[in-house]
Specification:
The structure is a homodimer of 175-residue chains. Helices cover 43% and strands 17% of the residues of chain A. By secondary structure, chain A is of the alpha+beta class. Chain A folds into two domains: 93 residues, Winged helix-like DNA-binding domain superfamily/Winged helix DNA-binding domain (Arc Repressor Mutant, subunit A), CATH 1.10.10; 55 residues, 2-Layer Sandwich (Dna Ligase, domain 1). A three-stranded mixed sheet of chain A has the order 4-3-5. In chain A, helix 3 packs across helix 5. Chain A is globular. Chain A binds a DNA duplex (30 and 30 nucleotides) through helix 5.
DNA sequence: CGTGCATTTGATATACTATAACAATAAGAG
DNA sequence: CTCTTATTGTTATAGTATATCAAATGCACG
């Protein structure tokens, strides 16, 4: 499936370079391919098994840069021909989340593909309340501030979940 | 209900001053009273109605510094004698959250009392994975880092949800 | 190439979290 | 007091997630 904006390269020229990849017109098939290739690699390296179901769920999660719910994935799996039940998709998601290939957005009860599965990290996300697209980011200064604050309050950190809701530039421009 | 640690003031001497109030032995009745008083005040100031159900739910949320689930609150309300149904407690919680008196922790599907309802703010929380106690904090440097990052990525922020999972000093000391 | 063990998947049932919709009641304005 | 609005009661259902046990598959080892 070719993204139509690719036929309009002029549109790209008006975007400033800070616009996150997920919000730019792009060849999304390449996104999916890259994500699957990275998944194959990390799984091979860590001795994890990217079975057909898991691979398919990952592919489905990557169909867009929007978070997708477990039951949406379930429907998509059923459309494939498998008559999948909830535990099937939740197990695949558990695997993918633990393998660092997918993130769960707690505020939305939904899942997005991880941008950078090759480097372990924790979740920081911007979510557009209008178009629902999600941008994952990693801020050293946010991490340092959070670590310092936690240490001051006597906490050892094990996980972080930072979800910011707002409006992306596209949606703001569109009023 | 008197907190037994109050009879052991020596214990207080060993705690460093950075220990959050929620983790220190303290007269928790005073906590509840203060929370309810602050709630009365904000509601009066903003023309909101702190009805008996809402007040009772707030009181129940404040029974501890641990997050409490909606259905736990429901049971507690039923124990009071009212035979409450889910919408009752969810409506009360919606009201309290919107009034800034209670925060919802998305990662736990649970609710905690807000420390500082008199000053509007957004949620930043440390959650101890062992004892489940929650410490709310509010870091200017975290906020600045998040704002800057969001702006760089073209986002206008409307809400933030920062939940850090870890282990508090008490639980670490207890191995 | 079996055999045995561990991992994964299938299938059923159920738990947990949250809201829609409409009726009944209570509170506040005039 | 009466009108209007906000709140609560009630029933039903939607949406999210897991427990449990059985069947199938993958894989290491002899």
């Amino acid at each position: 499936m070719m993204v139509s904006s690719l036929t309009l390269p002029d549109a790209l020229m008006t975007l400033d370079s800070n616009t996150p990849a997920a919000l730019r017109p792009h060849d999304h098939d390449a996104c999916i391919d890259a994500a699957l290739a990275a998944a194959e690699q990390t799984c091979k390296e860590q001795g994890l098994r990217l079975t057909p179901i898991r691979r398919r769920v990952l592919e489905l999660v990557w169909q867009s840069h929007r978070p997708v719910g477990a039951y949406e994935l379930l429907e998509a799996l059923s459309a494939d021909g498998r008559r999948a039940m909830p535990p099937t998709v939740y197990r695949a998601l558990d695997f993918l989340v633990n393998a660092g290939l997918v993130h769960r957005l707690a505020t939305l009860n939904a899942f997005v593909g991880c941008h950078d599965p090759l480097h372990p990290h924790q979740g920081q996300f911007l979510i557009c309340g209008d178009c629902r697209r999600v941008v994952e980011f990693h801020s050293g200064s946010v991490n340092r501030s959070l670590d310092r604050k936690a240490r001051n309050l006597g906490f050892e950190l094990t996980e972080q979940n930072v979800e910011l809701l707002g409006r992306c530039s596209d949606c703001r421009d569109a009023h």
